[in-house]
Amino acid sequence: MLSRKLKYGTSSVIIVLIVLGIIAVINFLSTRHFVRADLTENKDFTISDSTKKVLGELDDVVNITAYFSKNLPPYLTNIQTQVKDILDEYEAYAHGNLEVNFVDPAGDPSMEQKLRFMGIPQAQLNIIEKDKAEVVNVYFGMAVMYEDRKEVIPVIQNVMTLEYDLTSAIVKVKRSEEKTLCFLTGHGEYSAENYEAVRTSLGKQYMIMDVDLSEGKSVPNNVNTLIVAGPKEKISEREKYEIDQFLMRGGKIIFLIDSVDLAPRSLMATEVNTNLNDMLENYGVSVGKSLVLDRASNSNASFSSGFVQYSMPYPFWPRITKRQFDQSSPMVNQLENLILPWSAPVELLPSKVNIEKTPKQGENQKQEVTEKPPVTQNLKGIELFHTSQYSWTKGRPFNISPQQRFVPTGDMKSYPLAVAVTGKFDSLYADKPVPEPEMPEGEETQPEPASGETLIESPETQIVVVGNARFIANDFLGRSRANMLFIENAVDWMTLGEDLINIRSRFVTDRPIKEISENAKLFVRIINICGAALLVIAFGLVRFIFKRRAKKVYEAYSV
Fold first, then answer.
1. Would you say residue 514 lies in a domain?
2. Please, are residues 72 and 138 in contact by the beta-carbon 8 Å criterion?
3. Given CB 3.0 to 4.6 Å as the disulfide criterion, which of 55, 131, 182, 277 pairs with 223?
4. In terms of pLDDT, which residue wins out, 477 or 195?
5. Where are the beta strands (DSSP E) in 425-467?
6. Mind giving me the DSSP string for 216-240?
7. Are residues 3 and 80 located together in one domain of the fold?
8. Parallel, antiparallel, or unpaired: how do β-strands 207-212 and 346-348 relate?
9. The domain spanning residue 204 has which CATH number?
10. Which residues contact 499 (CB under 8 A, 6 or more apart)?
């Protein structure tokens, strides 16, 4: 009996030791191989492949310090746990090149002063619990440091955007030189005040500056990307020459072109002559002198008439939905919604550009092969997004009143509103003399001479052309969050590459109610009204049939 107990006891000890050994091996392997399953649609609890790539390419240690107070209110403790989980995942994929520390600065005056200089404030929170209201001061920020460079996240307000903020901070501190984004001025373009939200957002990753090309000035050599945002006045030939030569040096350009100038309150529209048409056409793009209307996919707009304010579907504000974006472009393939007010059609010229085209909404997959003219430049172009197939255009005179009957003129079809062109561009001024700058009357100063010899071909570079500049103005951004994301994606794609784009667009979802036909609406209405009654009747009939059958069986056996 004793030997049997001893045998069973030894077996139990061995089993326990084996289990503990298995747990220890699993624990050891888990510290070196990070694996998790995330079943959410957008992988909400897993860092993106782009972040994994950035972390995997770290060749030196980056320090992240999270400044969290211990006395956080209860509703923030869950966020703190999520932040810790994200940072644990970052450490796992950085393979030893990321150090994370959590610090509570409370009670340390020197540390609190240091954080003030760094730009991490002490946040004041109102707490109401247990019949008591009080104000507490807490720290809830983060600093990313590498060598003598640092980036801070002053207050973590939203865990959804933390991955982008954190990864972009890592990318920025690892760069040896700051990227510069430049806005053209001097021709009635959208000012810093009109574009305040966009400039503030882009300023987190880039140095923002304005450039005036009058009197023969050129685009500074430290500029990476130039934005031409809605000029309302004519751009001189010398200024165009400087823009052209910036592109020939390998610079990137985003053209946001308004074909009409609007007075929104009076709804008066006049045509704009920017003098850019010949240059854009030389680069393989044509911007129409008309406005696009979309009957099927548009946004509501608000108007006032006297003391009455009303809202209505407005075809002059096309809404771009998921299937209208080009799925091959990282700039737009994760967006689901854009609204572009009073937009011009933008066309790629097949004589200049090799067009990489995906079938549009409503088009057949198989289309007739037509003979294309020979392409004169080594350029590739894509249509970033387009309207629905129920669209048409209106030219002069421009009637944008919402009170009119929106009757299509001509055949309805889909119109592209934005394009991207990549490749080696030919200069518009390859066989032309350098234009003389236009000097103000009575100005005695000498114009600046052209910088060096005219470049006739660019290295590999890109341009983006959108037939609209209003869609990212302050007073319109609130209508669609994706409007801001598109311009951020375009700048990142040109200046930094694709890494940050995939992170930024992850949580941008739009789930509009699907439009159905009038017949389908009638069918649903009938089902809602009669469906319950029909179910009760059907249940009663089935029950009656079964009871009758059971009765017959019972009577047969009784006999």
1. no
2. yes
3. 182
4. 195
5. 461-466
6. G----TT--EEEEE---SPPPHHHH
7. no
8. unpaired
9. 3.40.50
10. 50, 53, 54, 167, 171
Position 507 scores a pLDDT of: 54
268-304 as b/e: b if 16+ CB within 10 A: ebeebebebeebbbbbbbbbbbbbbbbbbbbbebebe
Write down the mean pLDDT value for the chain: 83
| φ/ψ of residue 538, rounded to 5 | -65, -40
Same domain, 150 and 217: no
Neighbours of 23 (CB within 10 A): 10
> Domain span at residue 291?
178-360+371-440+448-504
The amino acid sitting at 47 is I
- Which amino acid does the sequence have at 140? F
The pLDDT assigned to 116 comes to: 85
Residue 426 has what pLDDT? 94
Q: Based on the domain organization, do 137 and 106 belong to the same domain?
A: yes
Contact at 8 Å (CB) between 87 and 156?
A: no
- Strand, coil or helix: 436: coil
What pTM was computed for the model? Answer: 0.78
Q: What's the token pair of residue 415?
A: 């119109």
Domain-embedded: residue 44: no
Residues 145 and 55 occupy one common structural domain: yes
Tell me how many domains the chain contains: 4
Per-residue model confidence as pLDDT tens digits over 323-380? 899 988 989 988 888 999 999 999 999 998 998 766 555 454 444 445 555 666 789 9
Q: How far is residue 234's CA from residue 273's CA, in Å, rounded to a whole number?
A: 6
Q: Is 231 inside any structural domain?
A: yes
Alpha carbon of 349 to those of 282, 354, 428: distances in Å? Answer: 9, 9, 16
